[in-house]
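$ ./design --mode recover --in tokens.txt
reading tokens...
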């Protein structure tokens, strides 16, 4: 997956918004909360996403995947696909979908209704 494919994929989520922050990173949010980030890692795209407790434990040991800098150091369960072999595109898509779902689930019922996510 490249940055354009990442942005096109994230743009398709209901209620998703996009901002460019933190040194030209593409940051995707729903209800004002981040669910995915694409930024640079030594000249290459790196994809960051929220992970379940189990996914964090399993995937953080995979070559090319690591606890996300800054986010994971604060005790949050975020991972970053930053190098080969990392995750396949299908696996990365699944993790971004799961991240979106976790963030949506954390929103208030009122906010989900406002965004058409009830």
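writing sequence...
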């Amino acid at each position: 997956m490249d940055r354009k494919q990442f942005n096109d994929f994230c743009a398709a989520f209901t209620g998703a918004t996009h901002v460019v922050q933190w040194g030209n990173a593409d940051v995707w949010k729903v209800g004002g909360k981040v669910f995915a980030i694409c930024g640079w890692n030594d000249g290459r795209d790196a994809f960051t996403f929220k992970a379940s407790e189990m996914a964090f434990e399993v995937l953080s040991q995979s070559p090319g995947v690591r606890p996300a800098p800054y986010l994971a150091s604060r005790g949050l369960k975020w991972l970053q696909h930053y190098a080969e072999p990392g995750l396949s595109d299908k696996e990365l898509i699944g993790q971004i979908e799961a991240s979106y779902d976790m963030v949506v689930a954390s929103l208030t019922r009122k906010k989900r209704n406002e965004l058409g996510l009830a």
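exit 0
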